[in-house]
Amino acid sequence: MKVKAPIPFEFVIDELFEFEPRVQRMFGAHGVYIGEKMYFVLRESEKSVADNGIWIATDKQYHQNLKHRFPAIRNFAVMKIKKWLILPVEAENFEETAMELCQLVKDGNPAIGIVPGSSKK
Length: 121
Hints:
Helix content is about 20%, strand content about 20%. By secondary structure, the chain is of the alpha+beta class.
């Protein structure tokens, strides 16, 4: 019997609790949704550690602003995901930055959150 991996960085779920987030397993990670929008993917893999951390569901138009506001945020190192950004687990002030990202979600900031399957042209 395969044991399900625990949700990494569960403090993110706790911080968003009032918005009734749901967590969905995906590709060895955990997607965080509120309503129809996905906001984060929480990933901590022992096999491929380069892109462990909090994946931020965003659009390219917000990259520069988010990177400026949160210097620890970067593009993916290995995964070929160009639209999203990542807060790597090894980042200085990882938890503090994660909490600030959660506050953006709580404030309804459009820079974070996508409706899966929709694409902007």
